[in-house]
Design goal:
There is one protein chain. This protein has one domain. It contains nine helices and two strands, in the order βααααααααβα. The longest helix is centred in the middle third of the chain and has 23 residues. It has 222 residues and is mostly helical. The chain starts with a strand and ends with a helix. α1 runs antiparallel to α5 and α5 crosses α8. The protein has a two-stranded parallel sheet.
Length: 222
């Protein structure tokens, strides 16, 4: 039996946040459509540019938290940490947006960006979901409702992605008058991201065991 390495959940969560921020920013650069989860904040950032794309993301997360609380009627202390992680997520997106501003945008590079960003995003989501400590709001939303409705993560993630995609298209035409932020990559990822995360999680569990250092943080998820 192969030896598994123990990795602290705090590290996997932090790594996941940084990786997914990078992946989303790279998707914007690819211009084939952004990820389904961030498509709605992106559309709103184009419609209302006074607020940056990075800031629209935690604002979207707060809306999800309100919906989550209305459905489950269960408040976890970990949601406070989740809000802080979502704020960090938005801040890091704005940093990467600045750092990647000068990347080349010819077709071959754009194809590379979208492929790399999808793979990174799947790894990032898997690391965060399996960290066993409070997640970002969007991940808590998916994870907690998966348990609430007793469905698989892959199924609920796909439903959630398709819902975000549909709303993004509606708001894009409503506020901007044309389709922005939603492209062929967005549509494809709406159907395959859940499966991609499932595959990555299966692979990671063969190599590592994620165990948080802090029992206090772990208890906050309950």
């Amino acid at each position: 039996m192969k030896r598994k390495y123990t990795v602290p959940g705090e590290l996997t969560l932090l790594t996941g946040v940084i990786l997914i921020s990078f992946a989303i920013t790279l998707m914007v650069k690819a211009d084939f459509g952004i990820s389904t989860i961030s498509s709605l904040p992106y559309v709103l950032s184009i419609a209302f540019p006074q607020i940056s794309f990075g800031i629209w993301n935690p604002m979207f997360h707060v809306s999800l938290l309100i919906i989550l609380l209305l459905i489950t009627r269960h408040i976890k202390t970990g949601y406070v940490i989740s809000l802080l992680m979502s704020a960090m997520f938005g801040f890091v997106i704005d940093i990467f947006d600045w750092l990647l501003a000068s990347l080349p945008t010819n077709l071959s590079f754009r194809i590379l960006y979208i492929v790399v960003s999808y793979v990174i995003m799947c790894f990032a989501i898997s690391l965060m979901v399996n960290s066993k400590i409070p997640l970002m709001i969007v991940d808590s939303f998916i994870n907690d409702l998966t348990q609430h409705f007793k469905v698989t993560f892959r199924r609920f993630k796909t439903i959630f992605d398709i819902s975000c995609l549909t709303l993004s298209i509606i708001l894009s035409y409503l506020f901007i008058g044309e389709l922005v932020g939603v492209g062929i990559a967005t549509i494809i990822m709406a159907f395959i991201t859940g499966s991609g995360v499932h595959v990555v999680t299966h692979l990671l569990r063969k190599i590592i065991v994620i165990r948080p250092w802090s029992k206090t943080l772990t208890d906050m998820t309950h």
